[in-house]
Amino acid sequence: MNILICNVGSTSLKYQLFDMSADEKVLCAGGAERVGTENSVFYHKNNLTGDAIRQEEAFPTHREAICVMLEQLLCGCISSLSEISCVGFKVVHAKGVTGVQYLTEEVLRAMADFNSVAPAHNPPYIAAIRQFKNLMPDTPMIGSFETAFHAQLPPEAYLYPIPVELSKEHSIRRYGFHGASLEYLSTWTAKEMGRSDLKLVCCHLGGSGSLCAVKNGISIDTTMGMGLQCGVLQNNRIGDMDPYIIFHLVEECGMELSEVKKMLQSKSGLYGMSGGVSNDLRDIQAAAENGNEDCQNAIKAYAYGIKKYIGAYAAAMGGVDAVVFGGGIGRKSDLVRALSLEGLDFLGIKLDADKNRNPNGGDDISADGSPVRIYVVDTNEEIIVARKAKALLERQ
Fold first, then answer.
1. Do 78 and 134 meet the contact criterion of CB atoms below 8 Å apart?
2. Alpha carbons 130 and 124: distance in angstroms, whole number
3. What is the dihedral of CA 295, 300, 302, 305, to 10 degrees?
4. Tens digit of pLDDT for each residue in 155-211?
5. Secondary structure class of 283 (helix, strand, coil)
6. How far apart are CA 8 and CA 26, in angstroms?
7. DSSP letter string over 199-224?
């Protein structure tokens, strides 16, 4: 069974073609960058032959990128598109829909109903899925919703303190995101430690990031909410913030509500706190090391937020057995890991500074004798989605 997994961004397309036999082999992988411009880039690697390409293309829309991808799949990976059992997507959000679903028109409409709370994710995904449907009309489209991993949150964790009738009528609640990554991190750690009764704090930290308290394999709390604008600060999104700042900016500072909304979702977070230096932590760290105080404060605030949630989740679970870092920043930034765990010895979290400097994926970077393990893991969201898509197909 071959399953094509696609990850769609507003200006990007990434894909992997899996042979979902016993070894779950990746047959090929690639993607497109700067979709929507005349100077797009397409890259592809055939793992069967070792051949790889990287070339400039013109991709005005995702459709052109998808067409080139399909052409490359037919160049030595498969002989016919009929060999693809389904196309799987790591979809984000839909009103009244979660879990693993066939992406019918009804489900796509449910996704569109939540465009307002996932404006950077749902619209490009919906558009790309429709393009796939047009180009591969006989191939099932399956979505694994990021909210599914958090479906068992208890009421005290998912309810907001607003009139309960509004919550019920408009499906307002904490949903949580990054489910594929957090599920991978937690299942990997359970296997590594040989236990299923673990209390874990899983940290998916990247351009977008969230933390999750996982107890006995189940998410019991997470930092993101109904939308993706809360929790730890993001690359250019706010994270946690007093909502009355919005009213102050509009009513007292003369800003338009649309201007504030744009600022909160694209000009805040690390980008905003750094004074517009960058939304990339690496650039901000370089500026901080050269004495930029705003960049120094941005990094400190980011790590401080992570530390607070680790402590809160340890309290919610009655302890912690392991802290697990994944995502681009979680995997690669020794500085963020060190600052986030600094001073948490009282919880039994003791970091080994030498191990933390340049770990490999899967390494335990906790100090000798630390009661709590600290892992750095190469998360694999695509294989989680592929497995869920395969399971749905096999239930037919």
1. no
2. 10
3. -160
4. 999 999 999 999 999 999 999 999 999 999 999 999 999 999 999 999 999 989 999
5. helix
6. 18
7. EEEEEE-SSS-EEEEEETTEEEEES-
pLDDT for residue 22: 76
Structure token pair of residue 348: 């039994």
Q: Which two tokens stand for residue 372?
A: 């709590």
**Nearest to 220, CA basis, from 182, 164, 194:** 182
Find where tokens 């999104």 sit.
Answer: 237
Q: CA-CA distance, 349 to 326, in Å (whole number)?
A: 17
Beta strands in 210-348 (DSSP E): 210-215, 218-222, 322-326
- Please tell me what DSSP assigns to residue 77: T
* Pairing mode, strands 12-19 and 25-33: antiparallel
Q: Locate tokens 């030595």: which residue? A: 76
Q: What is the pTM of this model?
A: 0.92
Instruction: Return d(Cα 37, Cα 41) in angstroms, integer.
Output: 10
3-state helix vs strand vs coil in the chain, percent to 5: 40, 20, 40
Catalogue the E-assigned strands of 145-205.
Answer: 199-204
Confidence of residue 23 (pLDDT cuts 50, 70, 90): confident
Please provide residue 133's backbone torsions phi and psi, each rounded to the nearest 5 degrees: -60, -40
Asked if residue 173 lies in contact with residue 158, where contact means CB atoms within 8 angstroms, the answer is yes
Taken as a whole, the chain contains a residue count of 396
Q: Are 89 and 142 in contact (CB under 8 A)?
A: yes
Q: What is the pLDDT of residues 379-389, one digit of tens each?
A: 999 999 999 99
The strand pairing partners of 375, in sequence order, are 324, 364
Residue 10 has pLDDT above 90, yes or no: no
CA 169 to each of CA 117, 143, 163, 165, 172: distance values in angstroms, whole numbers, following the listed order: 16, 25, 10, 6, 8
Tokens 């070792």 belong to: 50
- Structure token pair of residue 279: 């939304």
Dihedral over alpha carbons 202, 190, 17, 122 (to 10 degrees): -30
- Residue 383 token pair: 């294989």
Would you say residue 212 has pLDDT above 90? yes
- Tokens 């009421």 found at: 155
pLDDT of residue 39: 86
